[in-house]
């Protein structure tokens, strides 16, 4: 399965007698994302069918939820990761107590989809319908959210609501160093989906501005390309036009763990320039754990969770992004302070701590609400 999910499952298994995973089998174009093998021996995988289209899962949900009913007697609680097209149907499966782990919001991401306007409007209508079903589900179970925006939206309307930090970090993943930007070229890094809403083109534009100012910088882009989004080709065209093609590298996807973390350890500054709403990108924790100073935009839960441990800028402001990079390059005391504060913050947000707290809350809720 994907590393961000596999590491969570392995950590969850440390606190449970058994973990049964009901997952779709991936489509052919998704096979490369299945880069993690679960190691826990008390995890069982149940294939609920192919990762079909949103419409198929919406109109015929029982095709995918029926395998879960067969295991109802073995389950104490059904933890549903959302948003998902199946969430409204999953919440009605048998009489199993449910907990939701909400890590995003379909509605807020509609405007950033690379789709014609008419299609966006159809998707928007469906997204609101799905969210309505999701809100109904939050009233009957336990709800975890990794977003301050979602938390504030649900607060007062949802019983048993808890804010959590989703992460991929184990306590043994930390790489300690006192400083970065010690030699040229200064290496900027982005890790994540090659999605235009992450501000990738703005990062390339910032590189061009910095080079024009005489700064010796490069940008490494690590992650998988989103199907149907030509942002990588747009960046290449821009880089060629501005004569910075040799300073921007596309390094492809790499599995979470040592293979991915080496890119953080070789970098000088981590960038994430999202202009859409975020939950909280787990890559920020990864960067901080690898002693990287972080520059991020003030969107979603980033300002609420960051606690002064990153340089924050307004979204969509390319000049501000370039200025922030230059500031960290030329002010080592600022850079070192961010590294130290980032390490302290990341150490509070490991899988051992966060998943342990989630399981404790699920156990308490089951004991008090379901005997």
Set down the secondary structure blueprint.
Layout: H1 3-13, E1 19-25, E2 43-50, H2 54-59, H3 62-69, E3 78-82, H4 87-90, E4 98-102, H5 117-138, E5 142-145, H6 148-154, E6 161-163, E7 186-191, H7 200-212, E8 217-222, H8 231-241, E9 248-252, H9 258-266, E10 269-272, H10 282-289, E11 294-297, H11 302-306, E12 311-313, H12 318-330, H13 332-347, H14 351-369
Parallel strand pairs: 1-2, 3-4, 4-5, 5-6, 7-8, 7-10, 8-9, 10-11, 11-12
Describe this structure in words.
With 371 residues, the protein is α/β, with parallel strands linked by helices. It has two domains: 3-167 and 350-369, Rossmann fold; 186-347, Rossmann fold (3-Layer(aba) Sandwich). It is built from 14 helices and twelve strands. The protein has a six-stranded parallel sheet, with helices on both faces. Helix 11 (302-306) links the parallel strand 11 and strand 12 (311-313). The chain starts with a helix and ends with a helix.
């Amino acid at each position: 399965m994907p590393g961000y999910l596999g590491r969570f499952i392995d950590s969850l298994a440390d606190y449970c007698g058994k973990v049964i995973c009901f997952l779709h089998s991936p489509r052919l174009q998704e096979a490369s994302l299945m880069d993690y093998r679960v190691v826990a021996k008390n995890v069982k995988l149940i294939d609920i069918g192919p990762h079909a289209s949103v419409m198929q899962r919406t109109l015929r949900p029982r095709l995918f939820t029926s395998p879960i009913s067969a295991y109802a007697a073995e389950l104490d609680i059904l933890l549903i990761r959302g948003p998902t097209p199946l969430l409204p149907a999953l919440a009605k499966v048998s009489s199993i107590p449910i907990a939701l782990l909400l890590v995003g919001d379909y509605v807020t991401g509609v405007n950033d989809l690379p789709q014609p306007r008419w299609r966006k409007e159809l998707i928007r209508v469906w997204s609101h319908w799905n969210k309505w079903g999701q809100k109904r589900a939050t009233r009957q179970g336990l709800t975890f959210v990794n977003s301050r925006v979602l938390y504030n939206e649900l607060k007062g309307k949802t019983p048993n609501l808890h804010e959590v930090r989703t992460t991929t970090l184990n306590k043994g993943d930390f790489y300690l160093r006192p400083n970065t930007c010690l030699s040229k070229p200064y290496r900027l890094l982005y890790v994540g989906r090659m999605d235009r809403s992450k501000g990738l083109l703005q990062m390339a534009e910032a590189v061009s501005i910095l080079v024009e100012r005489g700064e010796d910088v490069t940008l490494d882009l690590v992650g998988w390309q989103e199907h149907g989004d030509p942002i990588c080709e747009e960046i290449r065209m821009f880089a060629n036009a501005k004569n910075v093609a040799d300073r921007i590298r596309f390094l492809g996807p790499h599995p979470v763990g040592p293979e991915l973390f080496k890119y953080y350890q070789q970098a000088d500054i981590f960038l994430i320039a999202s202009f859409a709403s975020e939950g909280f990108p787990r890559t920020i924790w990864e960067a901080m754990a690898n002693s990287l100073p972080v520059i991020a935009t003030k969107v979603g839960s980033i300002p609420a969770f960051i606690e002064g441990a990153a340089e924050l800028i307004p979204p969509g402001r390319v000049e501000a992004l370039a200025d922030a990079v230059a500031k960290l390059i030329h002010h080592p005391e600022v850079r070192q302070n961010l590294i130290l504060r980032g390490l302290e913050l990341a150490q509070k947000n490991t899988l051992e701590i966060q998943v342990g707290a989630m399981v404790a809350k699920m156990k308490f809720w089951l004991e008090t609400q379901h005997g």
